[in-house]
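Why do we bother with a discrete structure alphabet at all? Because it lets us treat a fold like text: something you can write down, compare, and reason about line by line. To make this less abstract, here is a complete entry for MurR/RpiR family transcriptional regulator. Read it the way you would read a sentence in a foreign language you are learning: slowly, and without expecting to understand everything at once.
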Amino acid sequence: MNIRTKLELEEHFTDSEKGIARYILAHGKEVVKDSISILAEKTYTSPATIVRLTKKIGLEGYNDFRIRYSAELEKLAVQENEIDVNFPFTKEDSYENIMNNLAVLANQTIEHTQALLDEKDLRKVVALMKKARAIDLYGTENSLLAAGLFQNKMTRIGKNVDMRSLDGSQTFLASASAPDHLAIVISYSGETETVIRWVQILKSKHTPVVAITSLGDNHLSRYADIIIRIDTREKLFNKIAPFSSILSFEYILSVIYSCYFQEDYEGHLERKISFDQMSDKRPAHLLKDDNE
């Protein structure tokens, strides 16, 4: 997880630390030039409070923060010519501009996500999927939308994939897990308390865990056997909608599905077509392929 996201989360921050975090987010380029005493003066706090904050977000101190945050801001500056993932359109934009911007945003998100994928990790995930008696999906809110599409695809090729939409039900699912299950846990921040509780239960059950989460260090990644990173340009709260993160989740899960599908291409294709034909209620003559 990048520094900006950790500051936005304000996890276990005191009121003074929250004030510093919000000031940094609002004045990033200025802050990295300031000494710790100047930042303390601007935020009406103390150097000791600033140091405590930097350590809470996993850094060694203020100098470490300035170096790392400056590099993070430079990386974001390179992306300034790209569509803003948080505000891809303005109130002045025409419908045509909105259509174009969202199309560009989708392409950019997939390109960023593809660049983060590692073929070796994908092969490990597929190997675990083939070995698993059952695959269980875990997530909250937006991540469940992508998980639901993945579950639907996998079910159509005959692989048992379970997903529950309620937090309590997901806790029960984790409690009933076993070493021959595979857990795919989807979380943008990787810091949601319920998600961490689930993976702690899963580890106690010796269930392999695949985490699909943001760049950088987070609690979820520390419990995972395999980590798949998503495009992490999106802010947690200050945005119109989770356009980018959902696209990134969906792309990763589509890639995982496709790689798994390819391992038994003919068999999976036959099962998928058979499933679709059995579940389709249209008259039989309408289901024939055009080339038949």
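What the structure line is telling us, in plain words: DSSP finds 14 helices and five strands in the chain. Residues 3-79 form a domain with the Arc Repressor Mutant, subunit A fold (CATH 1.10.10.10).
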